[in-house]
Records
---
Amino acid sequence: MRGLLSFLGDAWALARPYWNSEEKWKARGLLAVIILLNLALVGMNVLLTYWQASFYDALQEKDFTAFSQLLLWGHRREDGSFMPGFSIVAALFIVVAVYQLYLNQALQIRWRRWLVGHMLHDWLDRHAYYRMGLTEGGADNPDQRIADDTRLYVSSTLNLGLGLMSAVVTLISFIFVLWGLSGPMSVFGINIPGYLVWVALIYSVLGTWLAHLIGRKLIRLNFNQQRVEADFRFSLVRVRENMEGIALHGGEPQEEAGLRERFAAVMQNWWAIMTATKQLTFFTAGFGQVAVIFPFIVAAPAYFAGQVALGALVQTTRAFGEVQGAMSWAVTAYDDLAAWRATVERLTGFHFAMVAARAAAEEGPRVAPGAEDALSAERLRLALPNGRVLTEDASLRVAPGEAVLITGASGSGKSTLFRALAGIWPFGSGDIQQPRGEVLFLPQRPYIPLGTLKRAVCYPHDPAAHSNAEVAAALEKAGLDALVPRLEEVDAWDRRLSGGEQQRLAVARALLVKPRWLFLDEATASLDPAAERTLYTTLRRELPQAAILSIAHRPAVAEFHDRVLRLADGKLAPVQPQESLA
Ligand SMILES: Nc1ncnc2c1ncn2[C@@H]1O[C@H](COP(=O)(O)OP(=O)(O)OP(=O)(O)O)[C@@H](O)[C@H]1O
């Protein structure tokens, strides 16, 4: 019970922000209309049971006029009351049902847009996504949670919520109908009024309880299914993204084995879901079948005793069926409820992982952005997620326009030092003063976004911020003249360009963006030494005001820098350029 209450608390915590957001009046208004339409549907259902009673009575009495009037416009009964015809009620029913669904979907997409927008922000804000990827504590498969789980959550919440509401309203309405139709019954000499109502209630409560006992393992299984499906899809995406590496290694058998293994996890969990669903369906289908004849069995004695007419019998069984159906809502919706609960738990887990990752932005070295016109790091202690220390008490100060080369053995922590200077490394301590003005980091494998070549060069600027002529000039200076005519072409540029070309593209980016602070982390390492020299010469000529911090292994790069620092034994120490061999 505690588990259920805390789960409902989580579900509400997930939903509440939207219903109190800037969109709240539109959302609430739309929901109110949908609820009204839903209630109208229930009302028409009630009306139809009375219509049915009149219709069967007309049949029994072979009253053709009443029969045809009841099918068309309507019939005035002997007591003066008017019963609308089936065609009218059915036409109205169709219109209401269509708009109920249409507006429901409109509300779903609005809610989802809001939710996805907020999740994207929380995920990307303060590098939360990066930190979540660094530690195992991050939620698995964020892409699936943002793309799929939000869709499932929104549609299930609305549909289950409206389904529950309809069930409650149907229950209340038909309890009155059934109560009116059902006479008292004497059990051991005690008169029980509205006995059909009690029979329906007992039948349904028993059914719901049994469905819960049989189906509850589906919650965990559904949760797992989402995870294993996402893992499988992710491994397929990895193959697609690393096609060349895999093909060159001839790694297909390994990949196939890995993919099969992941799919086996999908299968295994799916079999467990099938077994659990089979058990639940045996029960729910049996429950549903019995429910068809059960009301006849309980109402038949009165009919055969001549106490009720055929119309009243039909109306009674229908009312019984509706009460029992509404009471058993949880039995029929158990599968959906289990899936919904799994989705809510996945989204809640993701939310808390994001909150923790954003809070962790305060952890690690203290970063003061743009505090002064220089870059400095003091008493920098950088560690790995597992606690291993990379630098102990490293210090650094770089003035505007200065060019500094950082060398050190592979794995000594040079890239991690850059990550810390960028303010994204959350493990360690010390003080970092970030400089004023635009900063650009160029890693060894540049990030190339999807879209046009122009977009790839301008990143992270908006492509509209630069003219084609500017971008073309930058590409030419970086030695990519051949690409100039393809600026507007959309392609998978990260796969189309060679490693060296990608690095040239990154240099073109620097020439275009003209940062005041440029960080090059082995950003020219894929080029031949002559090309590397040319690019460094171009960078120093074109960006004379820029401070440049480079990480490089080739000693020749030192001549383009004012001084060289070497990272060794956890400390940064100045060395002579000729000593800079890594
Ligand atoms: N996210 C991470 N989780 C665990 N270990 C990490 C992580 N990132 C880096 N490391 C480890 O930290 C150490 C330093 O990595 P870093 O990339 O800073 O080295 P580097 O000096 O730049 O090396 P190279 O010259 O080879 O590029 C390496 O041993 C690396 O395996």
---
Amino acid sequence: MSSTIIAGRFVNPEREWTGQIRLEGGTIVEVGEQLGSPDVEFGEDCYVFAGMGDIHIHARDDQSETQTYKEDFRTAAAAAVNGGVVQVADMPNNPVAPIDDASYRAKQQHLAARNVPIQVTLYAGIGPGTRPLSFAVPYKAYMGPSVGDLFFSTLADLDETLAHYRGQCVSFHCEDPELLEQHKSAATHEQRRPAECELSATRFALQMIEKYELRGKLCHYSVGEGLPLIRAARAKGLDVTCEVTPHHLYYDVSDLTDENRGWMQMNPPLRDIADRKAMLAALHDGTLDYLATDHAPHTLEENAAGISGQPHLDTYGEFVTWLMAEQGFTARQVAAFCAENPGRFVNPYTAPLKFGRIEPGYVASLTVLNLARPTTIRRENLKTKCGWSPFEGVTFPGSIEAVYIRGERHK
Ligand SMILES: NC(=O)N[C@@H](CC(=O)O)C(=O)O
């Protein structure tokens, strides 16, 4: 079996070191100081991370193929590799939602036929009246309306359904449907979906996680006032983790203009500068566990017409270099929220493959960032089928030097 020795500066959450690793048969088989003459050597400007994972994406691909004009599993995978991402978890708000054994299996087969190089974990949807599948999957519950038909009109309905999901892994889109309804005629998108909707939904999600002993996750978190609630829930022993997106860390309502309002629209919406700063601080202190993009591709025409969601997979790794060079995040922190924590989230479903660490036995997927070579994001370099990025024209301080997927170099 052919083996590859890589030399460079490696990073896990607990340490950063210079040395070598050996990849064989798609797996990391050895980690040491001097294993032999290296096949590849990354210089001192580079950081070699375990392959990064984005556990909140919308690949838009299902058996109906009605949304594949804006993305499919192949183009989403290409965008992921372009952004340095080796494993993703795909959301269920498709026209044919995977909500039971049969529809989930059909989506798995559809995915397998696309033959993509990256690992894709599929969420199953929770909607009114659904029941758990007969095998282990991660679930997603949309509390209120967003994009697609999979949502609840009242929190009481969600409670009733969740009673059947005791002990399961459930991710929550936190926006209270009844409060959204009260604000629906406000003037702007962010006024129609104010922070209090997310805050109220957070309280409810935490209650559900406690009541039904869920392995809970809060998606695309954006409200500063909610962070103490999450910390308190953890202090009480609840199993709850939390995502944050690039857009909620980079933009706030002060960035909105008449010209960009269409494509700067997403759910939950951009918040105040204080919220954005609170998200950065909470990613620093570990209250937020995952950098997860909520990659939500739509055509620019659809965004202009009022649909919510931005594409972000292509720029994942470059965005991370901004966190490191301009927001003071250490490589070890990045290894936690981009690799190990997302790996820990999907590993129950990816056996025998283990993602997220540079360690013998883990998959030989790696993301190598170069902190000395800036990148300007340009439309022609994107792989997402929707063909645009909110970061077009932005220069990030670093770039993606290499991506390895199961031992093979893909970039
Ligand atoms: N976040 C969004 O604004 N849009 C998502 C749906 C969602 O995650 O709410 C989409 O599927 O387009």
